[in-house]
Amino acid sequence: MKTKTWIISGISILITTFVLPGLVMAQLPPPTEDDAHVFKKEDTWSPYAGRNFPTQVYFGDTHVHTGMSMDAGAFGARLMPEDAHRFARGEEVTSSGGLTARLPRGGRPLRQHGLLSAAL
């Protein structure tokens, strides 16, 4: 009896989640010429006019684990905080897997770097 109740509940959840919203959306009329004022197109001389998001994005790393952290060390991280700082400055380091790694963009250093290892 419990199984039947679970099946009926599951079917009703599926119907209300996937079927009913589609039926409701199908009833909406398509936009008309009268709706054009809602999405009014404005001509500007610059593609950057009206931006309201950051335009100077700084790349960095705000949470770095090293071999001193138990959770990272358990998964094979063997590099120490000094190695993380060298990497953030754009220097080449040898990873825990034996591969050499360096920041892209010509090795330019990060603008921000936070070594927040749990062991420190």
How would you sum up this structure, described in words?
Helix content is 34%, strand content 7%. It has 120 residues and is mainly alpha-helical. The longest helix is centred in the first third of the chain and has 25 residues, at 2-26.
Spatial strand sequence of the major β-sheet? 1-4
Supply the helix-strand structural class.
Answer: mainly alpha
- What is the number of helices? 4
Q: Unreliable runs, pLDDT <50, ≥5 residues?
A: none
Q: Say how many strands there are.
A: 4
Shape: flat
User: What percent strand?
Assistant: 5-15%
Order of helices and strands: HEHHEEHE
Q: How far is it from the N-terminal to the C-terminal residue, by CA? A: 56 Å
Overall pLDDT metric: 77
Q: What Rg is obtained from the alpha carbons, in whole angstroms?
A: 27 Å
Main sheet properties: 2 strands, parallel
Helix content: 25-40%
List the main descriptive attributes of the protein structure presented here.
single chain, 120 residues, mainly alpha, two-stranded parallel sheet
